[in-house]
Design goal:
With about 300 residues, the protein is an all-beta fold. It contains 1 helix and 18 strands. The radius of gyration is 52 Å and the shape is rod-shaped.
Length: about 300
């Protein structure tokens, strides 16, 4: 029984970079090797050997359009014995508005009798993702807000983007369709000031995690001031306070008597007698003349 082994040259190259989501490919068999390559175009050698002394037939094919098996191998339907296969890969550099994040490709190695089917995973680095979220403060009676989300991630990255909040009073965090804001929905605040962390997480194809977070602060509840009670309207005729209901306006026909006095106001038609005097003030009744009793004979 033939047993095929695949060896990958060197160890993974660790360069700063990032990636988008893994390509949707049906991986055949278990991965027997993994290779990380830089963002620039290049190639690496893939030795294919066997522990059998007799010859064996095999073939190697690419499932990704940016990975290319050496033409001397790819053009042959079957290859025999041990060989070093050159694998070429395209550049993943970004230019102008083209943002290329890291990507994952697959090579499949299989034997003639299909007893061995193995997969080589190739990961290529790309543009480093960037995410920024500013802190936001809202009022106690606010239940929804938009938070600017500054990122260089593309729409293809959305399946690998996750959002969360650190407090249960935040109901949801959504990535808006325009790709520039997060919509955050939360409950009104009827207590003290409170805060929650809003977190954005992006996991690339290499398993590296990038995150950004901000603090959403909701102001404390302030109860409205009660409206003042209206003053009661006064009831006419009530109360004997001085100056209430006792003074008569001039011309009313009633007397206004100073305390202890007998003086009559002009025009009232009644006598005002000074103490011990007999003199009548002008304005008495018409047709009556009063004389001094001593003069009456």
């Amino acid at each position: 029984m033939n047993k095929t082994y695949l060896l990958v040259l060197a160890t993974a190259l660790f360069l700063f970079g990032s990636c988008t989501k893994v390509e949707v490919v049906e991986v055949q068999g278990g991965p027997i090797a993994e290779k990380i390559v830089p963002v620039t175009a290049g190639s690496f050698m893939l030795p294919v050997t066997s522990n059998e002394e007799e010859g064996f037939a095999w073939k190697l094919r690419s499932l990704s359009d940016w990975l290319h098996v050496d033409s001397s191998i790819s053009k042959s339907e079957w290859n025999f014995n041990n060989q070093n296969v050159r694998i070429n890969y395209d550049s993943n550099e970004s230019w102008q508005n083209n943002r290329n994040f890291a990507r994952v490709g697959y090579l499949v190695l299989e034997t003639y009798d299909k007893f061995e089917v193995d997969t080589i995973i190739v990961k290529q680095r790309g543009l480093t993702p960037s995410m920024k979220l500013p802190n936001v403060t809202v009022g106690a009676d606010v239940a929804k807000c938009e938070i600017p989300f500054n990122t260089n991630l593309t729409d293809q990255c959305r399946p690998s983007l996750k959002f969360s909040a650190s407090q249960a009073w935040v109901k949801s965090v959504k990535y808006l369709g325009n790709g520039t804001h997060l919509e955050v929905v939360f409950a009104n605040n009827y207590g003290a000031e409170r805060s929650a962390e809003i977190v954005a997480i992006f996991t690339d194809a290499l398993g590296e995690v990038f995150s950004a977070k901000c603090v959403l602060t909701q102001a404390a509840y302030v109860a409205p001031e009660p409206e003042p009670e209206p003053e009661p309207e006064p009831n006419p005729g009530e109360g004997n306070e001085p100056g209430e209901g006792t003074e008569q306006t001039p011309g009313s026909g009633e007397n206004t008597q100073p305390e202890g006095g007998n003086e009559q106001t002009p025009g009232s038609g009644e006598n005002t007698q000074p103490e011990g005097g007999n003199e009548q003030t002008p304005g008495g009744e018409a047709g009556t003349e009063q004389t001094n009793p001593e003069n009456v004979k």
